[in-house]
Amino acid sequence: MLLKIEKLVYGGAGLARTEGGVVFVPRSAPGDVIEAQIVDKRKDYSIARIIEIVEPSGKSITNRPSFGKVSGGSDTSTGTSRYDR
After folding, report:
1. Which of 1, 16, 44, 50 has the greatest number of CB atoms lying within 10 Å of its CB?
2. Cα(60)–Cα(22) distance, rounded to whole angstroms?
3. How many domains does the chain divide into?
4. Residue 33: inside a domain, yes or no?
5. Which CATH number characterizes residue 32's domain?
6. Residues 6 or more apart in contact with residue 33 via CB below 8 angstroms
7. What is the pLDDT of residue 74?
8. Which residues of the chain have pLDDT under 70?
């Protein structure tokens, strides 16, 4: 399914809306247009995984080295930090 991520929510997942309800997508960024697959369906929401980023928002960090900055356990790699120099 094709989704457009509206915003990030508590926990760092992206939020998209469909006719079927709200879908949370970990490791996405606001403005991303993605091809996704539902991996868990609940009464009030679904959780999906990214299959392909069709149109990146420009807010994602790409090509991050594996030894790079660690975010203290956060599962998100979106945006920038004002402390980066």
Report:
1. 16
2. 22
3. 1
4. yes
5. 2.40.50.140
6. 2, 3, 4, 5, 53, 54, 55
7. 54
8. 60-85
